[in-house]
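Quick one: examine this chain and its backbone structure tokens and tell me how the chain folds. Here goes:
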Amino acid sequence: MHIKDAQMFKRIITKADTYLSARANPTNVAKYSRYFKEGYDAWGSSEVEHKTLARELQYEYPELSVGQLLELGKLLFQHGKYEMGSLAILLLENRLSEADRDTFDGLQQWFDFGVNNWAHADYLCSRVMPWFLLEEIVSFRDFSSWINSPSRWTRRAAPVTFIKIKKTTDPDQLLAFVEPLMTDPERVVHQGTGWFLRELWKVQPQKVEAFLYHHRNTAARLIIQYATEKLSKEDRLRYRKDKVAKG
């Protein structure tokens, strides 16, 4: 990182810290903390305040490139406060039309080393990551390193992002791609994978049901639970584990 960039980033982070901490709202922290099992370190400032700060920073620092925003974003996530991660996302989202393959790779670093909650992860996967697929900057196969990442949030990101391409991509290829996640050890990955399978089921029910039946004995049960949520109680019974006969 260049010295000038480091100095600029320090000024931005200091301003953000001062602005957001001055708008702390303990009531909001208490209200939302119950939704974050992994912990919720926040000031409790509002979404409107986050957007206002993002606009001010964009006005004050118009020279910031997308590459610089990626570097700044890593520092904002490392700060620890929830709002800093939200600010990183807002700043980049507003410049998404300038993103390229390097941006996509940089976002994996955000997931690998910064993102640590479902709200940031799922916002990125619904509002930012699909853009790279829809603009054909990458294909779903470019997420191969994501599903092998040590970070549970990075692994979750791939199937959740794929929800946006469920109608336009070969379902067999998508199912084969997420198959390694069926036995992932992490709950947040189970939830994301199950969510994707439930959404794909809405457009390809037969293929998803065959896939789930094949994996019924080895898949994480939470994946099966999420994926079959829209099925009748009787139909869900098909996906229970086979009973092992006692000798």
User: Anything to note?
Assistant: The CA atoms of residues 58 and 115 lie 22 Å apart. The first helix runs from residue 3 to 21. The chain has a mean pLDDT of 94.
